[in-house]
């Protein structure tokens, strides 16, 4: 199917993805798990999680193999991952975003719908716990689909807090409570935090945890966004072209800042996020400035663990 693994699409912490073709000519993506990493737990976890889903904003699992090689067969997403379109590799403020604001807004809505489905629409609630641009795939129409369920947690729909061992996620997107229970319990609100950081990256066009020479704290990024919001400034690298687009940017920014509140109870559910995004700008209340650090704890940046090193 992969023509001897000829066409490599991408590589993650524990897998490599290849372009392949089914006998009927349909293109697919084959994710081959690295046998030397882990005991197959992430593979089984991904199959168990995603096989419970069926949604336009969740990537479709078409099949899997466990003998000889551990591999998963997914629908092929022609545009690749979201990070290729929103992240400025050089971290230069002069870079222009490659997506127009309407497309970015529709992507933000699509991701929110996918997460709402995982949290409320499945028989079991699924916490993804690794939402980031690299795990959002785009089809030919830029419809976003959530992928990579290797770190997902399946729980009962009425479970407000779940128990997990260790830290799950990727640097820059992990909610405070995931790495330190002093901030609260891990729940669907942890995905809300990751979603907020992802959307702020879409707005700013740069990684949230690498902001240049003056400050190394990953929380400097939303602080910078918040200051622009307070002052009514346009972000220099993503200028809106009309008052309507300016209102859209402001609305998305305010919702995102609500999503990254330090206290999980202050974050909206994904259902509420959709309501805020799709309603009038006037209906979104002004968000409090997120706290940068715990008064009694270490800074966030020293506590992160990437998914590739779990």
Percent range for β-strand residues: 5-15%
> Pairing-aware structural class of the strands and helices?
alpha+beta
Mean pLDDT: 81
- Considering the protein shown, what is the CATH homologous superfamily of the largest domain? Transferase(Phosphotransferase) domain 1
Total separate domains: 2
Spell the H/E element sequence.
EEEHEEEHHEEEEHHHHH
Task: Summarize the main sheet.
Answer: 5 strands, antiparallel
Largest sheet strand order: 1-2-3-5-4
CATH-defined topology of the largest domain:
Transferase(Phosphotransferase), domain 1
CATH class of the largest domain: Mainly Alpha
Helicity range:
25-40%
Shape: globular
Low-pLDDT segments: 89-96, 211-219, 293-310
Number of strands: 10
Write a short abstract of this structure.
With 310 residues, this protein is of the alpha+beta class.
Describe this structure in words.
- The chain has two domains: 68 residues, 2-Layer Sandwich (Phosphorylase Kinase, domain 1), CATH 3.30.200.20; 230 residues, Transferase(Phosphotransferase) domain 1 (Transferase(Phosphotransferase), domain 1, Orthogonal Bundle).
- The longest helix has 21 residues.
- The strands form three sheets. The protein has a five-stranded antiparallel sheet with strand order 1-2-3-5-4, covered by helices on one side. Strands 6-8-9 form a three-stranded antiparallel sheet.
- The C terminus is likely disordered.
- The protein has 310 residues and is of the alpha+beta class.
- The protein is globular and about 55 Å long.
- The chain has eight helices and ten strands.
């Amino acid at each position: 199917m992969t023509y001897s693994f000829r066409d490599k699409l991408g590589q993650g912490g524990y897998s490599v993805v290849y372009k392949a073709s089914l006998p009927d000519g349909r293109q697919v993506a084959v994710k081959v798990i690295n046998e030397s990493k882990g005991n197959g737990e992430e593979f089984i976890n991904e199959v168990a999680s995603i096989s419970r889903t069926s949604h336009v904003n969740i990537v479709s699992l078409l099949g899997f193999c466990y003998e000889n090689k551990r591999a998963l067969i997914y629908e092929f997403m022609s545009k690749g991952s979201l990070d290729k379109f929103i992240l400025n590799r050089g971290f230069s403020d002069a870079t222009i975003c490659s997506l127009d604001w309407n497309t970015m807004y529709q992507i933000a809505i699509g991701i929110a719908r996918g997460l709402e489905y995982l949290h409320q629409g499945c028989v079991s609630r699924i916490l993804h716990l690794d939402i980031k641009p690299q795990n959002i795939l785009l089809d030919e129409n830029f419809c976003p689909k959530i992928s990579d369920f290797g770190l997902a947690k399946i729980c009962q729909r009425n479970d407000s807090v779940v128990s997990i061992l260790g830290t799950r996620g990727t640097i820059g997107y992990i909610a405070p409570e995931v790495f330190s229970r002093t901030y609260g319990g891990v729940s669907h609100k942890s995905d809300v935090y990751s979603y907020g950081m992802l959307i702020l990256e879409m707005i700013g066009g740069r990684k949230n945890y690498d902001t240049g020479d003056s400050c190394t704290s990953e929380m400097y990024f939303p602080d910078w966004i918040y200051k622009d919001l307070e002052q009514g400034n346009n972000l220099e690298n993503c200028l809106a072209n009309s008052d309507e687009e300016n209102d859209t940017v402001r609305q998305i920014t305010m919702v995102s800042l609500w999503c990254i509140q330090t206290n999980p109870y202050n974050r909206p559910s994904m259902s509420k996020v959709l309501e805020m995004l799709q309603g009038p700008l006037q209906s979104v209340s002004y968000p409090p400035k997120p706290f940068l650090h715990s008064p009694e704890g270490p800074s966030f940046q020293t506590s992160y663990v990437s998914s590739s090193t779990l």
